[in-house]
Structures are given as structure tokens and as C-alpha cells.
Design brief:
The protein is α/β, with parallel strands linked by helices. Helices cover about 30% and strands about 20% of the residues. The protein has four helices and six strands, in the order βαβαβαβαββ. It has a six-stranded mixed beta sheet with strand order 3-2-4-1-5-6, with helices on both faces. α1 packs parallel to α2 (about 55-70) and α3 (about 85-95) packs across α4. The radius of gyration is 15 Å and the shape is globular. It starts with a strand and ends in a 12-residue tail after the last strand. The mean pLDDT is about 95.
Length: about 170
């Protein structure tokens, strides 16, 4: 069994003077990411690896999540292919994960992250909103086996969530 947590970056600033890759989080994103990360730490298995897109808004989200999850910031890994990635590219990055990792957290962008969440878990989420977190159990022994329908949603949270984020059968 492997655990995968997908995180869409927190709300970003739309300052048109900056290239898309360099857009930072706005005040709401800076507020929401630590809150959602703390809730995740209280409900879900501690991650072994945090992998992020290197785009400013994603990397800042990853940094805030690392703090909330008790992961040293220097342990955040970046992968250039995660920036504006398709579900296939995201899946390739997951499949390349070392099997010693039991729980992977992946911080990336829409639409790829929503599409991947739906593909892996056969859920029907219209849109992972900014700073949404989807935690899935993958019924696999090796990351290379990750694929459509192999996951089951165990945790779903987002900044304005009024409900318990743990998903029960």
C-alpha cells in the first residue's frame, strides 16, 4: 500500500507584470496553506517525500505545507516537469518515485492535478480549488504500478471545507 497526497498550490497573485512562473501567493494563499497543512497533519499519515513544481506559487505552498507537516524545508524537492504538467507527466513523476517512499506529497497545478486525481481515484471532482488536498491510498506495492482506478480517496480538504476531511467507507 502506498499513500499519495495531491495538493493544488494555494491562491496566487495575478500581477500581470510578472511571468506566470514567478507569480507569488496572495494574502489568502499565505493564510490558507498553513491552516490546511495543519489539518492534514492531524488526520493523515506523515509524508516521506514532498515534491513540488518549482513555480513560485507552488514552491511557496510546499514550503508552508512542509512547516505544517514538520518537514525540514531543505527536504522539499522540486521537479521542473510538474509546472503546468499534464496528468500523464504527473503520473510519470509519481511512477519514478523510489519504492522506499511510503507517502508522497505532490504540489502542482490545475488542470493536470484535478484530472490526475479523478483518473487515479475514479472520483468526480470538478475542480481541485486552490489549496485543495486529496489524499489517496493506492493499492500497489511499487510506485511504477500507479495508474487509473488504483487509488481510493481517504482524505479531501480545502480552505472553506465545513466537514471532516477524512473519507470513510
Amino acid at each position: 500500500m502506498k499513500y499519495l497526497t495531491l495538493v493544488r498550490h494555494a491562491k496566487s497573485d495575478w500581477d500581470n507584470r510578472l511571468p506566470d512562473f514567478e507569480r507569488p501567493l496572495n494574502a489568502r494563499g499565505e493564510r490558507d496553506a498553513p491552516r490546511v497543512a495543519v489539518r492534514l497533519s492531524q488526520h493523515y499519515r506523515h509524508p516521506d517525500r514532498l515534491l513540488s513544481s518549482p513555480a513560485a506559487r507552488a514552491l511557496r505552498t510546499a514550503t508552508l505545507f512542509a512547516r505544517g507537516l514538520g518537514i525540514p524545508e531543505q527536504e522539499i524537492e522540486t521537479e521542473a516537469r510538474l509546472y503546468d504538467a499534464s496528468p500523464r507527466t504527473l503520473l510519470d513523476c509519481i511512477r519514478a518515485t523510489d519504492d522506499r517512499i511510503g507517502h508522497l506529497v505532490l504540489v502542482a497545478h490545475n488542470p493536470g492535478i484535478t484530472d490526475l486525481a479523478n483518473e487515479l481515484t475514479e472520483s468526480h471532482i470538478d475542480n481541485l480549488v486552490t489549496c485543495a488536498v486529496l489524499g489517496a491510498e493506492l493499492e500497489i506495492g511499487h510506485w511504477r504500478e500507479t495508474g487509473p482506478g488504483r487509488g481510493r480517496v481517504r482524505y479531501y480538504d480545502y480552505p472553506k471545507n465545513p466537514a471532516d476531511p477524512e473519507q470513510r467507507d
